[in-house]
Each structure stands twice: as structure tokens, then as C-alpha cells.
């Protein structure tokens, strides 16, 4: 695969993060950026593919297009896939899997479309090299994506491999962990870029804290990962990858600010401590067993990131819980900016504060609201949500 050839890449993300991802791609050198639904398209070469897999905070997968065609029937679908020179992209020692999204009248089930694609790929290898690669559904080295929309078929190589939210530092999880990409997106929605402390009073496994530290230190978030999908391609240029990684690391900066994590659950704090140690930010992030309702703010102003219990995942009386949290914010967090994500649309009304901004997001399959509250000093009046 030529290194200097430009590709129209598709970068997947979570709903509500498309604008932030677009800005990230622009900052990393992307061209002709177009926002899609839960994705952004961008033009770049293979070096850019390496760079954005390492450097994107809000990207989930980077897909590289191999083919696009209008299918006439199932046999034509098979023949078009058979004509792709798969043996030029990976070899028979490499495992692969096919993931199909969408359907049409002829390919009315994703498993059928995937099986026909698998047959075409295996048959191509047998024709060209008299051998075949192995299908590995759970952890393929080369994931292949096929998107079906009516009669239009688009075929992609997944350059990322595992989803990019799997940074590599979080090997232990507490209850209801937050997706790393979503955590980074929430922080970036706040426009925080250092200068004031960060507190997560219900820190769980520490995701908010590590993502904030990565942003403050301008560290590429996927630096901890062992490999990517492109690592298994034929023609993978390890020297170019290392050069790009070194370039991104050279932009890292010292940051004297502190990050505070609190939780009542000792199991969660132990998980957070281990994850933070793997992230190498254990000198910057301070953990403490504390009750949000009993403890004070660690400074006069800061950014408070809160992912309170979701009533569909953790048993809690969310209305009273949210009401009590709102009271604590008014009494103890004047001067702070609060970023609050929740999937309990009814309990939001119990907070007793009016958000300055709000966004619709998804945490997994849960539809959520992200609310920003600016806690102005001296304001004690309770506002009702409109």
C-alpha cells in the first residue's frame, strides 16, 4: 500500500462528538474534513493513519476504503469482493474477520453477507497463493468492515484493530465504567485546557482523571497500546510509525496542576490506583476515600467531572441523590465548572440548577445528557430547569 497515496478515511466516533473529532483531525493535519453521523471523513496518507490512531482522543476506529460498488445480485457481490487483491494487504499467517453493517433485499442478514465475504477472501488467497488465512471472530489481527446501504457496498480495512477507546491503561474496572473516548469528549466539551484543578468525586476506575491528565500533558492517548490493525498489514512501515510516535511525544509538556479522585468504594479506588499507575500519572493524581456529601472542595475553583450512578445499572434513588448533589454544589462548589453526564432524564429535574450548556451523547447504548453548570460565587438561589 503506497505511503504517499491519499485516502478518504472514515473515522468513527460516539454520537455527539463529531464536532470535537473534526477539530482534532484538523489539528493533526487532516484535509477536506466532513462530519457524518457518528463519524467524520478526512483525507490523509498512511503516515496520517498512523498519527491519528495514536493521537485521537475522540475517535473509535479509523477505516481505510478498499472498494465501493453497486451490487447487482449475490454472485456479483461475491465476484467484486473476490477481485480485491487481499493478498497485497495481509498474508496467510494473519487472522481476519468480517463485520457487516446494514442490509438490502438480497443481503437481508448480516451473517449471510459476512459469510459470502469470508468465502470470497479465502477463495482469493487460494487462487493467488494456494493457501488461506484463518478467521478469528473474537480478536482478529485484520478486521474488515463492509457497509451496505441499498445496493451500494463499501469495503474498508480497519486500521485500528481494537476500538481506540481501549487505550491500554485501564485493565481494571469498577462499577459502570465510562468509555474513555466519551470521558475525553466530555472534558473537551468543557473547553478545559489546564490552569485549574480537576476533581472526580465518584471516580470509579479513574477514567476521567487519566483522560484529563493526558490532555493537560498533551500526551497521545493511545501511546500505551501494544498494536493496531495496521501493525499486521503487509508493507507496514515500523520505522515511519516510530518516527511519528516520537514526533507526537515530543509535543508533550510538563503540567504542574493536580487531579483529585474520590470515591467511597475501596474496590473502585484500588482499581483506579492500578490504572493510574499504568498511565504513569500517579504523581499527578491524588486519590482519597471520601464521601462527596461530607467532604469539601479541594480548591476555590476547578473543573468537577461527575458520572453519578445510573439507575438502570446501579441501584440508587436518583431523584433524592441528584437533589442532594445539587445542594452540595450550591453550598461548597461556588467558582467551579461542573460537567455532569446522566442517562436519567427525569432525575435531572431534581438537581435544582439551570445548565449553561447541554448536549445529547451516548454512553454505550444509554442515551445521555451532558450538562454544564457554572457555579458562580455568591449565587445561592435555586433555579429550575426549563
What does this molecule look like?
It is a single chain. By secondary structure, the chain is an alpha/beta fold. The chain is elongated. The chain has two domains: 7-158, VC0802-like, CATH 3.30.2130.30; 180-220 and 254-374, 3-Layer(aba) Sandwich (Rossmann fold), CATH 3.40.50.150. The strands form two sheets. It has a seven-stranded mixed beta sheet. The protein has a seven-stranded mixed beta sheet with strand order 10-9-8-11-12-14-13, covered by helices on one side. It is 28% helix and 23% strand.
Name given to the CATH architecture of the largest domain: 3-Layer(aba) Sandwich
Shape designation: elongated
The low-pLDDT segments are 380-386
- Using the coordinates above, name the CATH class of the largest domain: Alpha Beta
Q: Helix and strand string, N-terminal first?
A: EHEEHEHEHEEHEHHEHEEHEEE
* Global structural class: alpha/beta
CATH homology group of the largest domain: Vaccinia Virus protein VP39
Alpha carbon gap, first and last residue: 54 Å
Please give the largest β-sheet.
7 strands, mixed
Roughly what fraction of the amino acids lie in strands?
15-25%
Number of domains: 2
Helical percent range?
25-40%
* Helix count from the secondary structure assignment: 9
As a whole number of angstroms, the C-alpha radius of gyration is: 23 Å
Amino acid at each position: 500500500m503506497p505511503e504517499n497515496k491519499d485516502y478518504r478515511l472514515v473515522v468513527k466516533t460516539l454520537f455527539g462528538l463529531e464536532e470535537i473529532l473534526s477539530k482534532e483531525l484538523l489539528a493533526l493535519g487532516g484535509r477536506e474534513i466532513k462530519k457524518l453521523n457518528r463519524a467524520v471523513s478526512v483525507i490523509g496518507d498512511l503516515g496520517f493513519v498512523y498519527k491519528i490512531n495514536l493521537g485521537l482522543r475522540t475517535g473509535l476506529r479509523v477505516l481505510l476504503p478498499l472498494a465501493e460498488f453497486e451490487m447487482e445480485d449475490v454472485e456479483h457481490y461475491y465476484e467484486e469482493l473476490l477481485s480485491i487483491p487481499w493478498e497485497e494487504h495481509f498474508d496467510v499467517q494473519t487472522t481476519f474477520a468480517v463485520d457487516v453493517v446494514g442490509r438490502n433485499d438480497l443481503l437481508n442478514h448480516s451473517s449471510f453477507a459476512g459469510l459470502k465475504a469470508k468465502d470470497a477472501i479465502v477463495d482469493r488467497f487460494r487462487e493467488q497463493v494456494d493457501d488461506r488465512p484463518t478467521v478469528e471472530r473474537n480478536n482478529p489481527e485484520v478486521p474488515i468492515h463492509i457497509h451496505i446501504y441499498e445496493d451500494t457496498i463499501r469495503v474498508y480495512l480497519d486500521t485500528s484493530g481494537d476500538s481506540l477507546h481501549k487505550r491500554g491503561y485501564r485493565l481494571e474496572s469498577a462499577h459502570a465504567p465510562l468509555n474513555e473516548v466519551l470521558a475525553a469528549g466530555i472534558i473537551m466539551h468543557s473547553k478545559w485546557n489546564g490552569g485549574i484543578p480537576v476533581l472526580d468525586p465518584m471516580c470509579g476506575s479513574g477514567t476521567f482523571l487519566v483522560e484529563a491528565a493526558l490532555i493537560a500533558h498533551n500526551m497521545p492517548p493511545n501511546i500505551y497500546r501494544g498494536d493496531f490493525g495496521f501493525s499486521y498489514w503487509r508493507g507496514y512501515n515500523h520505522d515511519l510509525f516510530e518516527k511519528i510516535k516520537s514526533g507526537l511525544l515530543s509535543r508533550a509538556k510538563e503540567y504542574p496542576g493536580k487531579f483529585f479522585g474520590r470515591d467511597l468504594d475501596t474496590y473502585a479506588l484500588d482499581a483506579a490506583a492500578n490504572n493510574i499507575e499504568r498511565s504513569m500519572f500517579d504523581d499527578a493524581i491524588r486519590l482519597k476515600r471520601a464521601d462527596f456529601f461530607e467532604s469539601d472542595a479541594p480548591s476555590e475553583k476547578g473543573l468537577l467531572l461527575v458520572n453519578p450512578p445510573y439507575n438502570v445499572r446501579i441501584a440508587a434513588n436518583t431523584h433524592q441523590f441528584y437533589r442532594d448533589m445539587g445542594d452540595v454544589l450550591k453550598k461548597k462548589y461556588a467558582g467551579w465548572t461542573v460537567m455532569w453526564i446522566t442517562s436519567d432524564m427525569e432525575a435531572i429535574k431534581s438537581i435544582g440548577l439551570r445548565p449553561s450548556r447541554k448536549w445529547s451523547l451516548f454512553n454505550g447504548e444509554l442515551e445521555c445528557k451532558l450538562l454544564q453548570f457554572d457555579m458562580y460565587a455568591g449565587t445561592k438561589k435555586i433555579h429550575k430547569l426549563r
